[in-house]
## 1
Amino acid sequence: MITYKLVNDTELNTVCSITKKIDGTEVMSIPLVDDNTDYQEYLEWLAEGNTPEEAD
Amino acid sequence: MAINLNAKTTGVGGLETSADNSGEINIQSGGTTVMNVTSSGVAVTGSFSQNGAVYSTQPTFRNLIINGDMQIAQRGTSATGLTNGDTGYHTVDRWKFQHTGTVTYAVTMSQDTDVPTGQGFSNSVKYDITTAQSSLSAGDSLLFSHYFEGQMLQHLKKGTANAESVTLSFWVKSNKTGTYTTELLDADNSRGISKSYTIDSADTWEKKSLTFAGDTTGAFVNDNNTSLALIWWLGAGTTFTSGTLATSWEATNNANRVSSSNVNLADSTSNYINITGIQLEVGSTATDFENLPYDVQLARCQRYYYHLTDDTSSELVGAGYWGTTTSARGAVYFPVTMRTSPSLSYSSGSHFKALIPGVAFATSTAIAIYKNSEASSLLSITTSGGTTGQGTHLEFYSSPATTTYLGFSAEL
């Protein structure tokens, strides 16, 4: 199952990237950039009503 | 009309001339014009050479395809068990394994060394069926595809009265003879055109050439996103085959996308297909495959994917600083500007380490993008033992060197 977790910029405490997990294993770090197809997939996942894990 | 200067090749030979007042001269050999001179210039038919060096009469970079000879495979040379949910890039750069529906077949996709003899190729791409699906459900398919940015296609003048036709040529070999379909799919305007071809002889390399008419409707958006897909349909359910093949551009209608006679390559574990020498060029003629130097082809691929691996054990990732005592950062500069800010894939979050100056290295438990652009990426590893603000650099953790990597993807 695919899930996502937010990653914070530790200095500004804002989200700087998103970690993609497959069956709980981290496999990819995704920038918040509209042209990035992995970010587009994340937005589709959100639109399906899913919620990412909060950042640590 | 023109003045002809003909070197005769019959009888006793000699120079034959004709005269008119057109101001045009044809230089002929045996009645065949090899050079035509007019007030607007000189046209040469055939090759043109100087001191034995033959000049190409074809424009460079005419091939719209990147890595059409399959020589670049940054991610690896083989991916096994590709099946439902595995749509994506796995082996040869820029070439996508793709499916629709909920498929049960499995494919090994590889960079192969089987190539047509004497054509100058070193590699082909191979789909080898390892789990068969004898019958595809209506929405199922097996695809091999290439995606193009809109800004790479503006010279096709799509959506204008001067829209250019394009010709696709490629070499193909399969045990499974029969009808196959290729499609150009306009993602900006939801339009498409398909052409079928046949593989005539089993286990034999054949060259195919297909010309697609220009489309006067629907311009490609001039940006860095997908405008066009080139798709090989290697199997398709009735959702895609039940209509009449769209051999002219039309609004996308799934039923018309694939020939009703299209084979199902996935129907037996004996089946395979190899493809190489793929060229898509403006015009209605398939010219010789345009060979690019390896470094040029690699750089073109790296616009979409950059693979950094631990070739020598503990190879440098990038210099940086300790952001906190548990977070070390290092910058990676990409060799070419990427299409967009890339995603980062990696072998494992624990495959990296950061220098603690004067002490040792601290190994990672996770890695993530901290800052990113089309030109560089600042990576952050989660670790321990650092001093905030102190300089550092990130390295690959030496074991296992052969499978440790970072992959930056800006694919379409």
## 2
Amino acid sequence: MFRWGCLWVLAVSAFAQPRLRTETHNLPSGAELVTVFEEFPEGADLIDGRREMPILAVRDNREVWVFTYEPPSLAQRAAAGIPFFYRRSGLPGGGGSKPPKPVLDLSRPARGIWKNVGYELLQARLLDPLGIVSRLTTRSYGSNLGSERNVHIREAGTLIEDSAGMEDVFARLELSGRLFGGLVSDATLPRYYEKADTARAENRAHNWELLRQAAEENGLCFRPLELSDMPGAFAMISVSADDLDEERPKRFDKQFLHISNPFNDPRLRTKSGEIPLAVYALDYPRVPLRLVDFRSDGPQLNEMGLRFANDLTTDVLGFTGLAFGNLDYLALKQSWLFVHTRHGGTTDRGARERAFVQLRHALGTDATLDPLLRRQLMARLEKLDIDPAARTWQQEVRGAWRQYDALVGANDK
Amino acid sequence: MRTAALLLAAASLMPAQAAKRLVIVKVDGLPQDVVERDIGELPWIRSIFVEHGAVVRNFYVRGISLSAPSWQMLDTGQHMVIRGNAEFDRNNPAHVYDYLNFFPFYVGYARSKRTAMPGVDVLDECGIPLLIDRFAPDGRYQSMQLYQRGVHWQTLGDSVKARFEKSAHQLIDESQTGFDLGAGIYEQEEKELIAALANPKIAYLDYYTGDFDHTAHLTNDPAVQLRVLRHLDALLGRIWTAIEASPLAGETVLAMVSDHGMNSTPGTYSQGYDLVKFLNSPEGGGNAVITDRHPMDEYKLKGLNPFVSYVKTGSGPPTATIDPDGNERAAIQFLPGAKKMDYFGALTAIRVRNVVQQGVGASPVDFVAAKRADGSVLLYGDAMHQAVLEMKDGMLRYSPLTGQPEPGYPLHLYEDGVWLDGWHSEEEWFEAIHKAKYSNGLIGLSEYFRPCSLQHCRETDVDMLVFASDHWNFNVRGFNPGGNHGSFLRVSTHSVFMMAGAGIPAGLEIERPYDSLSFVPTMLHLLGRDERDLPGRAITELDGQPVLSGAGSGLGNGKRPAARL
């Protein structure tokens, strides 16, 4: 019989929202610029003393700027093109004094699609056949920068998802990451929003319960993290030092926990009290995504392994397109992905990166977690990033302000 | 909508007369409380039923709040014969009655021309007719549902065709947002129903939707649930508009009914406990357990097999079966070879270590119910809180076995101040307890354990029913964190029954409690075809004079119906 070792009685407030405010700026041109700011609660770690950060702006209900995304600098672009470079470069973004370009035009959402299609064709027909070096550099470049752009545009989308009147903007931001997303008609946007919002609510509830049951069966403690920005979106697994001998399970099942058996870990024997083991994102499809493993420093080998396998097969071996011979590989890859995903594997790179950025944002704007734990988590999280073009949280906040100031400055002229 | 409302109001002023047609919208798992919570956002439901029709505000599942048993009573008007969503033949546990699985039905039809869902086959064997059996085959339209006669290949085919017969732009939209074949079937059924309304020979039509139940199992987010309700509301508006345009406009009754409620609370997830693993464990007797689905089938390749109805866990020959479907209750049979032990004590002593939500305790099991040798029912809360329910000639008596009447006994009647001393009729109990936390649980237990001489009842008899504590469930197949049902908690049994048209009084709110057995008698009564041998009573308040919108409950908008101005 278990003793009652894990009491974290919290109300699940999965439906709370980030604290957003909008500010309308009447421009000399007669246009109207509506900016959405996120307010940092009392107790959050401030950057440059700012109590809020700009998230996005919409001019005349048409053009949309997203400040959580910053165009890459030349140095970042160069780093993004280095093959097998699985480290954050730490280089600053490219948002300077020049006003940023809008990321999408709500009145012409299809704009830019054919450019992207052209780039895909160029890659497949011209750059891939040139050889390994060409494939490695161009594909690394495209993949790293594309992923950085999508994940930070969708970061803003997540923040406004529950804001009344922003449903269409949310849908367009989400669709902007898809090659043909801009072709979706305006009439379909409400349905798209409904499906995305429903999927988020269902995933969060499902993963919350899956992780709780996994903790329960393995003698661990489950603790939902009610972060200010995204309550209910993350959870922590820990073990009580007293339980290491007393509550040892007969068999440690790591299928959904994705951590090694803590009951056999001699490093934990010297600790006392509640020992944090891992933090998980609950919005990931089907299974909780382990983001932070407190017993592992540095980037996750699993993440690097998946990237390496993809780069090796696609960029080095050239298994691209639907050419004869590649089909066998594609069939094999899809079969492996299917089986692995079916058994709880987390194979969606885009969703993984999104969860990582969401947790970092939530920690950066949080005031509910114990400050020591929060900073420890943030420090560990920053070490996990393996995108060369990615920025730190401080860089992201400063970049947001820099772009906002440049945009307002240019529009005021 | 205004025109339709005027027509609606005019229809509700007509003198009471026998209707000629029934249109029944069957909504799986829709709780009356949720409809009342969101009524301000549901203009068609408010207009059709609340303002211009009748609402039975205290309509309950009789017995277990599960789809298969509940729809059986709603669709037949007869006592419960099917007692779970899956049942095992205790003489041959490999023989599983899997009432919710559509795949074997369709494949079975293709192979052997089996023409009815498993539940209908059982009812046919027991000689129990469905409501639709009162209507000629060419005088009825039945949608896809649990108690379905015949197959709908044409509907399936047309729905797929309609899904892809779209403009290039619509196809691009769907390619980005995802193709939804399930929605396509509902759309096709709606088209067929509306087309059938134009045929005056068709006197019975129904439309079944499981969308709300499905969604509420997965998420307790009220905004997401409201979206589903809005779609339902719009559907009712389209059906009502089609009724008004049909040849039998003034003689058609539109009814909406649900089979159970849903214990779905914003801010509280429903937590699962795996009773299969417990029964496998030494604490649970080390049983080899048969169940109807793979535990956690979402994460297994074999979980992809849609024909599975028999899964054994544990080693050795099977010693127990468990039907955990429905989730707030599990039905257990012990087979020869099962370890003799105190299962009552073992089940109610289960505790979990993670207590992370307000109002959700460490005990997954609320109480266990089992039939005693003398026919009475034991309700086991713990060693100190055992009660007995006795049934005799339509009278019921609930009394403590292990002490004096005091708080802590199963069903918590003493806490709610609704305990009745001595023998009382079912109607007296119903009136006394239906608004308590466990609503009509006492009657539900008497229905479940009612003597039944049918061979099917004997074959599928269970040894104990295990009821989950509030916000707990026993779903092992996957997860239902949004909400569950299956128990006697009022939130799980409180269902929807609303009617309008064909002289049904406008704005009538019926407060008197009714249960599942009243549905068929009421429908037949409205058609002027009362049947005396049905066990339930028809809702006779519908015979009264039309009344102004009650609005006392706050359901209506307080305005007089347009036609009365």
